[in-house]
Specification:
Largest sheet: 29 strands, parallel
Helix content: 10-25%
Oligomer: single chain
Number of helices: 22
């Protein structure tokens, strides 16, 4: 400075000019001078209003219109409005810098149809700017497109109706830093040949979309559909020079692409190339990506693009919602890397249909890679020796959605020869929760014949695929091609990667080569077919050496829990030794063992583990026996294995053994080769009724294998869903159609389309409980069949009825429905395992047991008869004469036993057994409701004058006739009794002989009355009994009809029933009610008919005088017990029986009504036995046990209790024999005989042990304790040997 001050003025000016020149050269090295232009905003506020005018200073229009090399445009904070269009071109070192020194935002806004354009600029810089609402279109866009085409070979068009905010064409060394481009009704940035070393850093591209893309519900694309954050195009220069052949470097760092949208359909031209001719010549813009798009068509220079630390979120596009990379045919030496990028929530969740018949919105949600696009003819370079590469490094693809490849979609047209060995690598990437119809994470396809051909190579290494979802299956799509990673005609390598919890096959190949290398894990994936791998159409999986491949907990709902193979895709592939090997090791050894030795697989160090993989067909692997694999022969030889179906367990080496079940874990299953339906004659069913077809499915080795079948015509359905697995059981089939029609059906296997033989089915009319529906020709359940106790199965056309309930039609009508509790033991007994019984509508009587039928199972089936001794219906022959002879003999025997053995009620020892027999015979069917034990109760039935064994008088006997005939036997006994008494009164010798044996007619009459009372009373109650049957109709109404309770098929008071009804009323009036009534009121009896006094004494002589009414009360209780059994259902009637018997037992224990303590003890024993039966029955019913062991315990209980009663009855019989025949005492040890009976008993002792003395006093046995309450004898006799009692009293003979 001191030196300059000392200089003279001329020299000082020269030095000054030199310094200024140096400064200018330093700041603007290519310009002679540099200007700093301050640009004033139209408004100091944000760009919320239309463009205004600049009050003072230079506007942005003026600055851009007059810009020259070296200009530094400093834009002040506020809104800068572009009102005129001008292209900044052919300049150097131009900068647009937002001045944020004042803290404001610098915004650039454009008038309609205007935008910013820069052409052929070197060293172009943008910093701290926000460009909003701009959109270059119309004639300005056309003129710009023409200008660009003078420099570069831009064979694509910037159409005049596309809005573009910023165009940078043929510019070098471009810098964009902290630039925001938002709210463009089109594309935010279009860059054409951005050359040199360019850097885009810290920029934001947001909400740039075509006008018609603003709504996700747009249904039709139009000209105004192009949009997106940024499109960068690289093409060759028209005049290619050494400078234009220099490498191009583009660095995109820390950029944000959000909420941009591109909904045009142009990309269909490239992806679905068959539509190309329809679009040829149309003025369209090639583009795709919603966030970022690369159109790459250069051949003359290397290109290096590095996108790093950038975010792609919530962008949408038809293809490439986040980003699109379009490689045109002939492209070479292009290298793109995405590192540490985040692709999240891109794509639409909904799709809309276009006129092309294709899904146009968000077909692909993540990154689109489109290779070898051909849209015009141009010369190819002679040498394509520089392959292209695309790398995704440490990037995340999360929650993207679309139709195909929601993470990444790679499509190669394979149109160029020679083939360029291009490669795509995904390294250390994460694909999580992406959704698509196929290739939810990654979809790769190349247009060639097979994946074995040369072409694009794809490598996946160190990647994780987690919880990605194949959302729904495409119509007609094979079950094995819907995958998380989907490859078609490709060769892909998967190395050291994990597939965890994906829905849809983890990796699916169609005519592809899938190479597995290193540590690859397939865990917890779920699919229709092939949970981990799906290999179809000659796809092959190759496991490389030194690899660990793990398949664990994968599931397939149809086939191949871990691996699904379909080598020939839908065709039977296993015939005659055909080749179907889709698993190889290290390489493809197809011809080893034929042309050269196979390598030793045990040296490959390969471990494949299969654990807990499941599927309906083939738990681990489905589709082949793998015996056609060349290595299989070697392995079987090394391991000395035999068998045709092999199971893989790769734990230590490779081990094979035969599976036991086709759907168990670790199973290899083969596809079906033949289907044959058996037993197809006379198939007759209701429309829509499911029936079972016996279908035999075998593979080409004639082994029975499972398969899934469907049916034709469309009116036929197998199973509930239209598909049926044949391995477990017969095929469930439903045929819909008109009533009384015939249908020919054919079954097909789903996986191999194998056809069965034709099956003819005849459709009948709808049966009971169903009505015909014309809408879908089907028989549907009537509304009236819906009940808590009955369910109607719409498929099987059956009714599920709760045990203990009856369900059926109203008698004589077809519309009414009855569901009511079963009567007695008429219905089937409860099953040990099921709570319901299933019956067909045409076989409603199947719910009836014991060959019964009809309403409430009351009648017998055709050809069966009602029988005595049980409620069963049986086939029986006419043996009337034999039964009559037998019954006649039994009647005579009863009279003889009572008369000769003195076994009568007068002794007081058989009262308990008779009461016991009447109760137990009545309640036997209620006690043993869970099992049949009729045989142990035969003695009590006989004691109750009922047939204890099953028999009938004639064939066709009805229940009504059986009960009517049952009244004849008591009548026959009374006839015999009267005849016998008449004979004794007429025959002196017979009378004297009977007098010596202490015979009295009153004892005989009293005993027969009590014996017959049970039988007559029970028959009367049965004849008088009725049941109210409730009938339900479809309209919800119901009404009640009355039927005879024993057989509800009989109308109450029908002719035969009316006759028995009259007889019953007479019996009730003269016998059932009067007998106990007269016994309860003896005073009334003596006043009315004094002659009945001896008969009365025969009834009550063993009771104490004040309890003479006891027998009458017991007879009335029998009447009540019979009614409980007839009109109430168990367990209610059993509980009430227990209460009644308990009251009797308590009363007897307190009152001691019998004269002798032994009589009371015997009566109490039988009452206790009844209470035990009641308690046991209630206990076993409460448990409702169903095991065979518990049934055995129940049977043992009843046998022990009842047999204990029989033992006591036998003791009573022996006791009477000893009393009647004293000489039998010599056969008994003296210590076993009561003290008073060790001496002979003379005729002065009657059957009770009483002696009749001249002084008319009662003499007791020496060992019997005198009861002071016993009164004087009720009548006196002068001489025992001379006494003969007439039937109703009178003078002694």
């Amino acid at each position: 400075a001191i030196y300059l001050v000392l200089l003279p003025l001329p020299q000082l000016m020269v030095v000054h000019l030199g310094v200024v020149s140096i400064v200018v050269l330093l700041v603007c090295p290519t310009a002679i001078y540099c200007s700093n232009v301050t640009v004033n905003p139209s408004s100091s506020s944000s760009c919320s209003q239309p463009c205004g005018s600049v009050v003072n200073g230079t506007s942005i229009d003026q600055a851009l219109g007059n810009i020259s090399s070296g200009d530094y445009l400093r834009l002040l904070p506020g809104c800068h409005c572009v009102r005129t269009f001008s292209v900044v071109k052919d300049v150097t070192n131009v900068s647009l810098i937002g001045d944020d020194g004042g803290g404001g935002i610098v915004q650039i806004m454009c008038a309609p149809g205007l935008g910013l354009a820069f052409l052929n600029v070197t060293r172009l810089s943008f910093q701290r700017l926000t460009i909003t609402g701009c959109g270059l279109n119309g004639s300005n866009a056309v003129s710009l497109n023409t200008a660009i085409n003078t420099i570069v070979d831009l064979f694509i068009q910037l159409a005049e109706d596309i809005n573009i905010a910023l165009v940078i064409a043929s510019c070098t060394n471009v810098v964009m830093d902290h630039v925001t481009i938002v709210n463009t009704n089109g594309i935010g940035l279009v860059g054409v040949n951005v050359a040199g070393q360019s850097n885009f850093t810290n920029n934001v591209f947001s909400s740039n979309a075509g006008q018609n893309c603003k709504s996700t519900n747009a249904s039709q694309p139009s000209s105004n559909t192009a949009g997106g954050g940024a499109q960068l195009m690289y093409v060759d220069y028209i005049n290619q020079s050494s400078s234009s052949s220099s490498p191009v470097y583009l660095n995109i760092d820390n950029n944000t692409f959000s909420q941009n949208s591109y909904c045009g359909i142009e990309t269909y031209v490239e992806i679905f190339y068959q539509y190309y001719q329809a679009f040829r010549g149309v003025n369209y813009t090639v583009g795709a990506g919603g966030g970022l798009s690369f159109n790459l068509a250069q051949q003359g220079y290397p290109l290096f693009i590095n996108v790093q630390r950038s975010s792609f979120k919530n962008n949408t596009a038809t293809f490439g919602s986040a980003a699109a990379i379009l490689w045109y045919a002939g492209l070479q030496d292009t290298h793109i890397t995405f590192s540490d990028c985040d692709f999240s929530k891109n794509g639409f969740a909904q799709y809309s249909q276009s006129t092309l018949g294709l899904l146009t919105y968000s077909v692909q949600g993540g990154v689109l890679v489109l290779k070898d696009i051909v849209v015009r003819s141009r010369p190819w370079p002679s040498n394509l020796s520089h392959p292209n590469t695309l790398v995704f490094l440490r990037s995340k693809f999360v929650s993207n959605s679309g139709l195909l490849g929601s993470g990444i979609l790679i499509k190669s047209q394979y149109s160029v020869i020679p083939i360029n060995a291009d490669s795509i690598v995904m390294d250390s990437c994460q694909f999580e929760e992406n959704t698509a119809m196929a290739g939810s994470a990654l979809y790769i396809s190349e247009n060639k014949f097979t994946g074995l051909q040369m072409g694009l190579t794809v490598t996946i290494q160190n990647c994780t695929f987690l919880n990605n979802t194949v959302s729904r299956s495409a119509v007609g799509a094979p079950s094995g091609v819907l995958a998380t990673v989907q490859a078609s005609l490709m060769k892909i390598t998967i190395r050291d990667s994990s597939f965890l919890g994906n829905t849809g096959t983890a990796v699916g190949g169609i005519s592809s080569l899938i190479i597995l290398e290193g540590d690859v894990r397939f865990h917890g994936n779920t699919a229709l077919a092939g949970g981990a791998l799906s290999l179809v159409s000659a796809s092959i999986a190759i496991v490389k050496r030194n690899s660990i491949i793990s398949f664990a907990n994968n599931t397939a709902s149809i086939s191949g829990g871990a691996i699904y193979g379909d080598y020939f895709y839908g065709q039977s592939s296993l015939g005659g030794g055909s080749y179907d090997c889709f698993l190889q090791f290290d390489s493809i050894y197809i011809f080893c063992n034929i042309e050269y030795p196979c390598p030793d697989l045990t040296t490959f160090n390969i471990t494949m583990t299969f654990s807990n993989n499941t599927a309906t067909l083939g738990g681990s692997l489905y589709g082949s026996t793998l015996e056609s694999c060349s290595w299989a022969t070697q392995i079987k030889r090394l391991l000395n294995l035999n068998g045709s179906i092999l199971e893989l367990v790769f734990n230590k080496g490779i081990i094979f053994h035969s599976p036991q079940s086709p759907n168990s874990s670790y199973v290899l299953s083969t596809p079906v080769s033949t289907l044959a339906a058996k037993n197809t004659s006379s198939l007759t069913y209701m429309p829509g009724q499911m029936f079972e077809l016996n279908l035999n499915s075998t593979d080409s080795f004639n082994q029975k294998v499972p398969t899934i079948v469907t049916a034709q015509p469309l009116s036929v359905t197998v199973g509930d869903s239209g598909y049926w697995l044949t391995s477990a059981s017969d095929v469930g089939t439903k045929v819909y159609g008109q009533q009384n029609a015939t249908v020919n059906i054919t079954l097909y296997s789903v996986d191999r389309f194998v056809q069965s033989n034709s099956i003819l089915v005849t459709l009948t009319e709808c049966k009971f409980g169903f009505y015909y529906n014309d809408t879908k020709p089907n028989c549907l359940c009537q509304n009236a069949t819906v009940n808590s106790q009955v369910t109607c199965d719409q498929n099987l056309k059956v009714f599920n009825i709760t045990y203990g309930q009856w369900f059926g039609p109203e008698p004589g009508a077809s519309t009414g429905v009855v569901f009511q509790a079963c009567l007695f033991d008429y219905c089937l007994p409860r099953d040990n395992t099921n709570l319901v019984i299933t019956v067909l509508p045409q076989a409603i009587d199947a719910q009836c047991g014991n060959n019964r039928r009809g309403l409430l199972c009351g009648g017998c089936q055709e050809g069966y008869s009602a029988v005595f001794g049980t409620n069963r219906c049986m086939k029986c022959s006419d043996n009337t004469l034999g039964l009559l002879v037998f019954c006649a003999a039994v009647g005579v025997g009863i009279i003889a036993v009572i008369t000769l053995l003195h076994i009568s009620i007068s002794e007081g020892y058989i009262n308990g057994p008779l009461f016991y027999a009447s109760v137990v015979s009545t309640y036997e069917i209620h006690f043993t409701g869970h099992f049949s034990a009729r045989e142990i109760f035969i003695p009590v039935y006989l004691l109750n004058l009922d047939m204890g064994f099953e028999t009938c008088f004639y064939n066709g006997m009805t229940p009504l006739e059986r009960i009517g005939l049952g009244l004849l036997f008591p009548a026959y006994l009374f006839v015999l009794m009267i005849l016998f008494i008449w004979l004794t009164s007429r025959s002196l010798k017979l009378s004297e002989w009977l007098a010596k044996s202490n015979y009295t007619p009153s004892k005989l009459v009293a005993t027969l009355i009590v014996l017959s009372y049970n039988s007559i009373t029970q028959s009367c109650i049965q004849i008088l009994g009725f049941v109210e049957v409730t009938v339900y109709r479809d309209d919800g109404s119901k009404y009640v009809i009355s039927r005879w309770a024993t057989d509800p098929n009989v109308e109450y008071f029908s002719p035969i029933h009316a006759l028995l009804f009259v007889i019953t009323v007479v019996l009730v009036a003269i016998f059932v009610i009067p007998v106990p009534f007269l016994l309860i009121l003896p005073s009334l009896t003596s006043r009315v008919v004094w002659g009945l006094k001896p008969l009365y004494d025969a009834f009550v002589c063993h009771y104490k005088d004040r309890y003479a009414f006891w027998l009458g009360v017991r007879l009335f209780l029998r009447l009540a017990i019979f009614m409980l059994s007839s009109f109430l259902q168990p367990p209610t009637n059993i509980l009430l029986l227990g209460i009644c018997v308990s009251l009797i037992f308590f009363a007897s224990s307190v009152a001691h009504p019998f004269k002798l303590a032994s009589q009371g003890a015997l009566d109490s024993f039988f009452l206790s036995n009844i209470l035990l039966l009641v308690t046991g029955s209630l206990y076993f019913r409460m448990l409702e046990v169903s095991s065979a062991k518990s049934n055995r315990a129940e049977r043992v209980f009843f046998v022990v209790v009842v047999c204990s009663a029989y033992v006591v009855m036998l003791g009573i019989l022996v006791w009477h024999l000893v009393l009647r025949f004293p000489k039998l005492l010599v056969l008994v040890p003296s210590k076993c005989v009561p003290k008073g009976h060790r001496h002979s008993v003379g005729p002065q002792v009657d059957s009770l042990g009483y002696g009749v003395l001249q002084d008319n006093h009662v003499q007791y046995r020496p060992d019997e304790e005198l009861d002071a309450s016993i009164d004087q004898p009720r009548f006196r006799v002068q001489n025992f040997s001379e006494y003969r009692e007439p039937l109703l009293g009178g003078e002694a003979a």
